[in-house]
Amino acid sequence: MNPPAQTIPDFAAVLSAAARIAPHAHATPVLRSRALDALLGAQLHFKAEHLQRAGAFKFRGACNAVWSLSDAQAARGVVTHSSGNHGAALALAARTRGIACHVVVPEGAVRSKLVAIEAYGATLHHCAATIAAREAACASVQHDTGAVLVHPYTDPQVIAGQGTAALELLHQSDSELDALLVPVGGGGLASGTALVARAQSAPLPVFLAEPAGAAETAASLAQGRRVVDFVPDTICDGLRGTLGEPNFALLHAPDVEVLVVEDADTVEAMRLVWSRLKQVVEPSSATVVAALLRHRERFAGKRVGVVLSGGNVDLDAVATLFARA
User: Fold this and answer.
1) CA–CA separation, 178 vs 159, rounded Å?
2) How far apart are alpha carbons 192 and 224 in whole angstroms?
3) Residue 207: beta bridge partners?
4) pTM, whole model, 2 decimals?
5) Ramachandran bin of 224, using left for φ above 0, alpha for ψ from -120 to 50, beta for the remaining angles
6) Among 163, 196, 168, which residue's Cα sits nearest to residue 61?
7) For 199-239, what is each residue's pLDDT tens digit?
């Protein structure tokens, strides 16, 4: 299901994506907090993608993919597999073009996210929780419906679309940044961010926050090959995807570093964002703040662009997490 290496996008694709999605996606704000700057010893610029349509940065990539289709392709509809945010984003993007959308969802997906996918008009197809089961179910739906696959993180149009978050962040920040920090799961946002970071006149290092219970990106970059036999165990449901081939190709470079964080740190970081920044973010999104807390020395005195990736929270589950913390 992964695209061949020649479909890896470049910075020009990110610029094209920005123009293509402009009529549909929000230009989300950049938030600042003196309290968090003082606490973490850095100047932080938070890109508020939890305020994006469908509640996550995922809408950028899904929207770019949907509106990149030819009319003949679009008439066939689209299909993907997703634990939540990408599925909701693709369903909403498909609705903006008036086409059908099918989403394969794994067992154990967050109920509130499944409700959102259905609310945007997609047809749900359930499967086992493994990546192999998800991809097999996608192939079956493709065969039965003729729908076009929009992979959550390896599709080149998705990668380019996700890169527009970092592109906007750099344009919106009131000072030049020294580094970019984003969460990593399958690698769509991370890859798109790397394309943008490298295209600057002074290229920026990219830091990736990854939960310890799903740290296959850290293992892959350390070993110089994709580690695909990792069984995820983390509260960060949006970061359980396996790093894709084109994503690995874009991220296996000296300017990219993975910062691994524990779920307990992520819960505390989520509480901190809610209380200090007054923003509701989901666990996957809070990993970046957990990374800032755990690795303060890496960012001391620096101006850091931080992508808050999503805000689709199961409030009952979060209340339980906070109670345990």
Assistant:
1) 22
2) 20
3) 181, 257
4) 0.94
5) left
6) 163
7) 999 999 999 999 999 999 999 999 999 998 888 899 998 88
